[in-house]
Amino acid sequence: MELRHLRYFIAVAEEASFRRAALKIHVSQPPLTRQIKQLEDIVGTDLFLRTPKGVELTEAGKSLFIDSKNIFTLIQQAAERANSAGAGKLGKLNVGIFGSAVFGTIPIVIQKFREDFPDVEIVLHNLNRVEQLKALRDGRIAIGFNRFFREEPDLAWEKIQSEKMSVALHSSSMLATKKSLKLSEIINYPIILYPKTARPSFIDRMISLFNEQKLSPNIAHEVDDVVTAVALVSSGLGISLVTESACNLKLPNVEYIPLSPSEGAVFDLNIIYRRNDISPILQAFISTVNAVKKSL
């Protein structure tokens, strides 16, 4: 059984006439009659009753007519879904993020993409820098957001934004009334840094800022993420250095004081993806990232 058999069958059933069906689908009547006879031989029963006024469907014909219409509906839907997938409008996108990413630009990107491409499922994976690079190469994610990236021959990257730094401290601290702070003003306070895994990372960049000024920070704790760090600040266990976006994390008794611009503490947020990945969904997501980037 081929699709043309069903197409001809539907035409005859809808027109209740071989002559009218032949005119409708632009074929001569003898070939149409032969195709219907072939179809009846395939299914092993008559599909039409011949009457003086034309033809009527048998019970078998009525059953096949319903199924045939459903088949062509499914074919049309399959074509539309394939077209949507080819245009990046349908499918799944695996995205790598990291701890403090949930407080800044990334949620804006994801929200806009979901609005523009509601039929694409976004799956978020919380991964550090090293884990993201491996996941990209293994094909477990298509794109990652991260702050630290060194040139890799198989990976492409684009900067989304640069973020300044702030000091998270307890509201009872004498420093809480300052408009800005220098690193030299916080070296005697217990400092909470993060993340303690996936080196080199944010910790190493922070330590290098102190080292460039020949300062020795009082590192009290190294924790896994910014949320834990700020929670410890809220409990009065020290201070922490955070990016601008992390200042959106509101916990009791925590104040955020900008680090002086003269300290040169700026961190880039990047997207990372495979150079040879031409997936329409990925390209659509990158376009969304760039649209959001222009609005920042």
TrEMBL record:
User: What keywords are annotated for this sequence in UniProt?
Assistant: DNA-binding, Transcription, Transcription regulation
Q: InterPro entries given for it?
A: LysR_HTH_N, LysR_subst-bd, WH-like_DNA-bd_sf, WH_DNA-bd_sf
Q: Which residues form the HTH lysR-type domain?
A: 1-58
Origin: domain of life: Bacteria
Question: Which cellular component, as a GO term, is one annotated location?
Answer: protein-DNA complex
An example Gene Ontology molecular-function term: DNA binding
Which family is it part of? Answer: Belongs to the LysR transcriptional regulatory family.
Name of this protein: LysR family transcriptional regulator
